[in-house]
Design goal:
The protein is an alpha+beta fold and 270 residues long. The chain has 11 helices and 7 strands. The termini are far apart.
Length: 270
């Protein structure tokens, strides 16, 4: 009797619609079984991200620039550029003209380097005579300053040259690492080169072509042994002095005045 009564109650509940329907909860049958799919959530996130990116592009937001890491000068231990060489007295005739031709020889060396030309004694002699003739016609005297050297390199040789007043080992190395040559005006006697005729030139000019851990490598036209001639860093920095009296010759300049000349180097490029 009890079982019959229970069966009638269940049957009555079903007929009256008291059981919860899927439609009442706004869920489908699959929703009752499965949880929301992860890919649907990701799609929503990606759409929002794309919208943000599009908004940034619309607003002309500049792209993020990745910094370029440049080599640190002190990390490069050695450099020696392939620079041609000939002395300022190509035939070993150290007369008045050739004794004073260090500036011309240094400029000619730079010109031949940047034009990938070979240099020998015959060519150097011809170039020195031609350059001195050109200088005389253009108002230059025997000893030219660093600024006059820059002017000649531009006007005569069509090279780019500039004066740099930061005279340090690191600055010279930096110029060389760019592929530039460095021409330096110096108080020649401060170099202490044993190949110079005593007491050495009052004013001198030479080309720096490289360096190693404690020396600069030069092409010094003041001696036949000047190719790849090495000077200590300290010696070069100490000796660098510009010609102090533009338009004057050595008869008008004392050694003390020379040793107080402006510190400057000449960076030369194509």
């Amino acid at each position: 009797m009890y079982i019959k009564f229970l069966f009638l109650v269940i049957f009555f509940v079903i007929l009256t619609g008291c059981a919860p329907q899927a439609a009442d909860l706004n869920l489908s049958g699959s929703d009752l079984i499965n949880t929301p799919k992860t890919e649907n959530i990701n799609t929503s996130v990606n759409k929002n991200t794309n919208q943000n990116l599009n908004a940034n592009l619309t607003n002309n937001t500049p792209p993020v620039e990745i910094p370029v890491v440049k080599p640190v000068v002190n990390e490069i231990k050695k450099l020696n550029l392939e620079v041609p060489f000939a002395t300022q007295a190509p035939y070993s005739v150290w007369d008045d003209l050739h004794n004073e031709a260090c500036e011309e020889a240094s400029m000619i060396i730079a010109y031949y380097y940047f034009n990938n030309k070979k240099l020998n004694a015959d060519l150097m002699e011809q170039e020195i005579l031609s350059l001195i003739s050109w200088e005389e016609k253009n108002g230059y005297v025997v000893d030219v300053t660093a600024q006059e050297t820059v002017d000649i390199l531009s006007a005569k040789f069509n090279l780019t040259a500039k004066l740099i007043y930061t005279v340090t080992v690191e600055q010279i190395k930096s110029e060389l690492l760019k592929g530039n040559l460095v021409i330096i005006p110096v108080a020649g006697r401060l170099l202490g080169n044993p190949n110079f005729k005593t007491p050495g030139p009052l004013y001198h000019m030479l080309v720096i072509r490289g360096f190693d851990e404690d020396e600069f490598i030069t092409n010094d036209p003041g001696t036949r042994k000047g190719e790849n001639y090495r000077y200590k860093y300290k010696t070069i920095i100490n000796a660098i002095h510009d010609w102090p009296k533009s338009g004057f010759t050595k008869e008008h300049v004392t050694e003390e005045e020379m040793n107080q000349g402006q510190k400057v180097i000449i960076s030369v490029s194509k």
